[in-house]
Amino acid sequence: MPARPEQLTMLRALAETVGHIADFAIDEVADIRLALDEVATALVSDAVPGSELDCELDYGQDRMKVRVTGVTTSKEAVAQTGFGWHIVRTLTESVEAVQEPYDFLARGYRTTIDFDWSRWNSRPRLV
């Protein structure tokens, strides 16, 4: 999908649909959708104009793996501080941001954020 803010609604709907197909509860789907929204928003806000955002969702009985990739303008993968990143860390089992060296053809840095969500992690915990 185009890496533009107005496309985030489509990505949220995709996460919600896949979560329901995977037979997750409404609150679990909301957690996954919120984590994906934070990750995608971070990539879209630093996206190279005209670039695209790729999203892969893979699920099993009690887990979902999400990978979001975009081309960003900043040399730093994503700001891994702040409230948005805190939300992602709280809602997921693990999260990792990886950035490739500058790509002159893409005019930016290919950046991938992976997170794993599991039913066991969705229970309330102290942060």
In short:
With 127 residues, this protein is α+β, with helices and mostly antiparallel strands. It is built from 3 helices and 4 strands.
Fill in the keyword field for this structure:
alpha+beta, Heat Shock Protein 90, four-stranded antiparallel β-sheet, 3 helices, 35% helix, globular
Protein architecture, described:
It is a single chain. With 127 residues, this protein is α+β, with helices and mostly antiparallel strands. It has one domain (5-121): Histidine kinase-like ATPase, C-terminal domain (Heat Shock Protein 90). Helices cover 35% and strands 29% of the residues. It is built from three helices and four strands; from the N terminus they run ααββαββ. The protein has helices at 8-21, 26-45, 82-91; strands at 54-59, 63-72, 94-103, 108-118. The protein has a four-stranded antiparallel β-sheet, covered by helices on one side. Helix 1 packs antiparallel against helix 2 (26-45) and helix 2 (26-45) packs antiparallel against helix 3 (82-91). The longest helix has 20 residues, at 26-45. The radius of gyration is 14 Å and the shape is globular. The relative contact order is 0.20. The model has no long low-confidence stretch (mean pLDDT 90).
Shape: globular
CATH class: Alpha Beta
Instruction: Please count the helical segments.
Output: 3
Q: Residue ranges: pLDDT <50 for 5 or more in a row? A: none
**How far is the N terminus from the C terminus?**
34 Å
Q: Main sheet, how many strands, which sense, barrel?
A: 4 strands, antiparallel
Helical amount = 25-40%
- How many domains in all? 1
User: What structural class is derived from the secondary structure elements?
Assistant: alpha+beta
CATH architecture: 2-Layer Sandwich
List SSEs in N-to-C order. Answer: HHEEHEE
Mean pLDDT across residues: 90
Which topology does CATH recognise?
Heat Shock Protein 90
Q: What is the gyration radius calculated from CA atoms?
A: 14 Å
Strand ordering within the main sheet: 1-2-4-3
Q: Estimate the strand proportion.
A: 25-35%
CATH superfamily: Histidine kinase-like ATPase, C-terminal domain
**Strand count:** 4
